[in-house]
Each structure stands twice: as structure tokens, then as C-alpha cells.
Amino acid sequence: MLRRSRHHHRVGLWKLPLNRTMNSTEAPLHDPTALAGIGNLEVVAKRIVEGFMMGQHLSPYKGSSVEFVEHRQYHPGDEVRHIDWRAYGKTGRHFIKEYEDETNLRCRLLIDCSGSMGYAGKTLSKFAYARQLAAALGYLLLQQRDAVGWVTFDTRIRENVEPSVKPQAFPQLVASLAAAEPGGETGLGQVLERFVPTLQRRSFIVLLSDCFDDPEALSRVLRQFRHARHEVLLFHIVAPEEEEFPFSRPTQFRDLEQAQHPQLVDPHRLRAHYLAKFNKFREELRRLSSGIGVDYCPFTTADPYAKALGAYLDARARMTKGRR
Questions:
Q1: Percent of the chain beyond pLDDT 90?
Q2: Which of 109, 136, 240, 313 could lock 45 by a disulfide, CB 3.0 to 4.6 Å apart?
Q3: Count of CB atoms situated within 10 Å of the CB of 221
């Protein structure tokens, strides 16, 4: 069984500056690092989702009426029973009353804010990638009329916001993510085990993390989510350097969760051992996830966000179909 090492998953820390700030129409959607330079989280999230949805004709999911949320203009094909006739009497225009659907998807975004997520090589940091992806997922969820809630955590749960479809949910999510920063060392399994009992209703769990924990411990908490009938999508986020280990000269490595213990090593001697450990670690995560019905999706911080949004929609479609 692979156990967590304090240094074989960690590599040196640096970040390359962007040459200039691009506007939202110039930034290529396939380049997460370039997108990070076009504006704040809200701007980038909307750019990502709108670019992704363009030409795909994604339709919102509607359901039965439970809690009134807002009005929208009537369109041909809408159910007449949802017309607000009182509003028609006042304005002479047809409006549809939209409701929060108890059967709609309730999604929880779990964002790892531990120290190891702060690593940045030639791309933006793992944390910046996860934070931007979470913002884009939140925006897409709300566009699809799904409820979004989120949890940020490192050594403990920092923030836990209940799912909502209300318009203010997205600005609140953006503000929460913008204020978050990588913190202390964490054991994912131990922290999330304390979160599982707080879930009162079936949810779609999306975990965004570099998963630096004992795979068996992480598998145990994922199994608890599944036992409670939650669907789980695991976005395993790593830096390209962690996947490739491209270092050639003597390099000082440090644990981003315990930065006071740097180590100077010869990458040539370490490379084969590191890559074997890393690939075994990732394959074990894949195997354990598959065995308990968790969708495992590995990403690097160079991968376009559209890849992750597509994986989410595939998982969401399977979950929705299974509930009917």
C-alpha cells in the first residue's frame, strides 16, 4: 500500500509572470494560465462557461414547483400552468414563475485549500486552477438551474455553504473563492469524514484536490459518501512537473505544507523512483475510485477547463438518468 511521503510528491515552487493582461475575447479558452490574466474569478468563469456552451445548445433542467425563486418572460412551449396571472393583470405581459426543484441536482463543490495546492510551475498553481474551475462549475450549475453549495478546507472545514439556486449564490461563491488561500497540511480523509454526517440530503459531490493522502484513507471517506447515496466526481489536479518530473540540475525541493524542511537532491537519481511512485499512486486512486463507483478524472493545470466541464456534464447526465 502506497503511503504518503513528505517529499516524493513535492517539487520546487516558482511562478512565471504573464507578459501582459489580455481581455476576455483574446484569451484562449484552452489555456488556463492565460485565462487567469483576463480579470477576476467572475469574469473568467463566465468566459469559460459561455465559450464552452456556445454551439452546444444546453438546456436548463426544470422540475416540479417547491419554492418560488424568480420570474422570467414567457416563451412559446412553456407550461401555461406556470404563468403568473397576477403579474399579467398588473403588466399585461406573461411571466413564468420559476421554482427551486426539490428533485433538481444539489451539487457540493469541495475545494482543497491545503498547502500542497499552492504549487505552481510553468502554469498557474493547482489551487488557482481548482478555484477557477470551481467558479466555472458553479456558474454552469446555476445556468442549468441546479443548486450549488461549496466547502473549502485544509486542516479543517473553513467554509460550508448550503446549496442554492438563488441568483446571489454565484457572487457569494466567487467572493468565497477569491478570499481563500492555500493553508496548512491536511489529511483529506480525516477532514472529510467529519463533513459526511452533515449532509442531510442526497447530493452530487465534486472534489477538487491533488489528493495527497493515503489512497486507502481517501477511499474510505469516498466510500462513506457513496454509502450515503451521494454521487461523487473526483477531479485529481496535479501540475505538469509532478506528472513529468522534468528537472535536470540539482534542485532544492520543499514540502509546501511544511516549508521549513527543504531538501537538495539530484533529480537524475530521483526521477525514476519518483515517477514510479507517482504513477503507482495515481493508478491506485483510479482503481479504488472505480471499485466504489466514483468518477475519477485526472487533470493537469495545463488542461483546458472545457475538459472538466464536459466530464461534469457526463456525470450529471448519468446521475439524472439514474434518478428517473
A1: 52
A2: 136
A3: 22
Q: Which of 144, 64, 156 has the alpha carbon at shortest distance from 107?
A: 144
pTM for this one?
0.76
- Condensed to tens digits (0 to 9), the pLDDT of residues 70-100 reads 667 777 766 666 777 777 777 888 777 765 4
Q: What is the spatial distance between Cα 231 and Cα 138, in angstroms, rounded to a whole number? A: 17
**Angle value at C-alpha 179, between 28 and 115, nearest 5 degrees:** 85
Backbone angles phi and psi of 72, in degrees to 5: -145, 160
CB atoms within 10 A of CB 13: 15
H/E stretch holding 48 reads helix 41-53
Q: What is the C-alpha to C-alpha distance for residues 310 and 289, in angstroms, rounded to an integer?
A: 19
Residue 3 has pLDDT above 70, yes or no: no
Cell numbers linked to 89: 393583470
Query: What is the model's pLDDT at position 56?
Result: 57
Q: Which long-range contacts (CB under 8 A, 24 or more apart) does 212-216 make?
A: 212/4, 212/9, 212/114, 212/116, 212/188, 213/4, 213/186, 213/187, 213/188, 213/189, 214/1, 214/2, 214/3, 214/4, 214/187, 214/189, 215/1, 215/2, 215/281, 215/284, 215/285, 215/288, 216/1, 216/288
Residues 181/111, Cβ–Cβ less than 8 Å:
no
Q: Amino acid letter at 323?
A: R
Interatomic CA distance for residues 219 and 234, integer angstroms: 11
Report the pLDDT value the prediction gives residue 324, as an integer from 0 to 100: 53
Calpha distance 153→113 (Å, rounded): 5
Backbone CA torsion sign across 263, 268, 271, 272: negative
Is residue 148 within 8 A of residue 104, CB to CB? The reply is: no
Give which of 178, 166, 230 is closest to 201, Cα–Cα: 230
Q: Are 235 and 134 in contact (CB under 8 A)?
A: no
Are the beta carbons of 285 and 279 closer than 8 angstroms? no
Q: How far is CA 72 from CA 62, 75, 96, 104, in A?
A: 13, 9, 5, 19
**Domains, the chain, ranges and CATH?**
32-57+104-323 (3.40.50.410), 67-100 (no CATH)
